[in-house]
Amino acid sequence: MAPNSTEIITHKYTLPVNKENKVIISLNVSSPDGICHSSVQHEIQFVFEKPQISLVRKVFGSKDKASYPFIVTPKGAEVKIEGKGVEKKNSNDYFFTPSKAAIGRILFKLNDEPAGFNVRIAETPQARFTYKQMGKQLILTNKSIGADSFVWIINGDKIEKYNISPVKFKLTSNSPKTWSIRLRVKNRYFSSTSSRVISVSI
């Protein structure tokens, strides 16, 4: 080897290397003329980084049919993920589809052990309403599901309710013949909106 040159030496270990999972590396160097010598020792402790998993968020809607890839740390680690709504694609890619799981808390297994990570599937609210005219009265009936808060926007006027009781209007000669109706409903996690324009007879 030429003076002042650098040689890169590599070695591949199969873990665990021993009971302590520890090795001691020794390096001995000599000058080209063999007069000067130097030695150094280094202890290396190998530590396993336990894989972890996560998703883009922790709450999903029950009607969500998208497939969300699991985020694996460290990247590239070989894992086996199990749980409701979990699907494996390709060689080592796992995805979660909320609509294939059940409403409530979803627990996962990682390499046959509890993953320490879970998500919640919340019911996706659906805004629905019907209307009918009974003589001089317009009745709006709330048919929404999965919601606990309701906001009606009727011809620009807001009506907030916390139940699905009907909204009634007395029709007079001054009432509009065309009504713009929007119903926005929500629960703790999600919301939904339904809109329509209706005509009445005065």
Structure description:
This protein is mainly beta and 202 residues long. The chain folds into 3 domains: 12-48, no CATH class; 52-122, Immunoglobulin-like, CATH 2.60.40; 129-199, Immunoglobulin-like. It has no helices and 18 strands. The strands form 6 sheets. The chain has a 4-stranded mixed β-sheet, with no helix packed on it. A 4-stranded antiparallel β-sheet has the order 15-14-17-18, with no helix packed on it.
Q: Which bin fits the share of residues in helices?
A: under 10%
- The pLDDT mean sits at 92
Question: What is the string of helix and strand elements?
Answer: EEEEEEEEEEEEEEEEEE
Q: What is the annotated CATH architecture of the largest domain?
A: Sandwich
Number of strands: 18
Number of domains: 3
Global morphology? rod-shaped
Helix and strand content put the structural class at mainly beta
Cα Rg: 33 Å
Would you give the CATH topology of the largest domain? Immunoglobulin-like
What is the oligomer described by this structure?
single chain
Q: Span between N and C termini?
A: 103 Å
Q: Runs with pLDDT <50, length 5+?
A: none
Strand content: over 45%
Total DSSP helices: 0
User: Order of strands across the biggest sheet?
Assistant: 4-11-10-7
Q: What's the CATH C level of the largest domain?
A: Mainly Beta
